[in-house]
């Protein structure tokens, strides 16, 4: 912990690895979005441990973080009501064709 923000409830976003090509994304809304209050960093880390992740990385969990699933926004950390324009993303695609 280098700042006090790790010991206060905040929105959090992270990615963890369970095994080769097996990842876990966790998004915790916060700052009142949908009633969520966020998590402290140790509690956030515990979520990854509980899911069997051997390594995890904390990403930006503030208003610039938006999680999409199959084209739908599933996170609500941005309290301004508008998605922010950002230049970075983590994108997973599948070669599965449905056949």
Helix content: 10-25%
CA-atom Rg in angstroms: 14 Å
Distance N terminus to C terminus?
48 Å
Tally of helical runs = 1
Question: What do these coordinates show?
Answer:
The chain has one helix at 41-50; strands spanning 12-19, 22-28, 55-59, 68-69, 72-73. It is an alpha+beta fold and 99 residues long. The strands form two sheets. A three-stranded antiparallel beta sheet has the order 2-1-3, with helices on one face. Strand 4 and strand 5 (72-73) form a beta hairpin. The longest helix is centred in the middle third of the chain and has 10 residues, at 41-50. 17% of the residues are buried.
Keywords, please?
99 residues; alpha+beta; three-stranded antiparallel sheet; 5 strands; globular
Give a nutshell description of this structure.
This protein has 99 residues and is of the alpha+beta class.
Helix-strand blueprint:
Layout: E1 12-19, E2 22-28, H1 41-50, E3 55-59, E4 68-69, E5 72-73
């Amino acid at each position: 912990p280098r700042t006090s923000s790790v010991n206060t409830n905040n929105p959090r976003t992270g990615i963890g690895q369970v095994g080769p090509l097996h990842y876990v994304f966790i998004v915790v809304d916060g700052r009142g979005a949908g009633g969520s209050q966020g998590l402290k960093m140790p509690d956030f880390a515990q979520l990854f441990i509980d899911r069997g992740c051997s390594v995890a990385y904390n990403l930006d969990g503030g208003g610039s973080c938006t999680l999409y699933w199959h084209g739908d926004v599933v996170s609500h950390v941005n309290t301004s009501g508008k998605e922010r324009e950002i230049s970075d993303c983590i994108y997973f695609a599948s070669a599965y064709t449905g056949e």
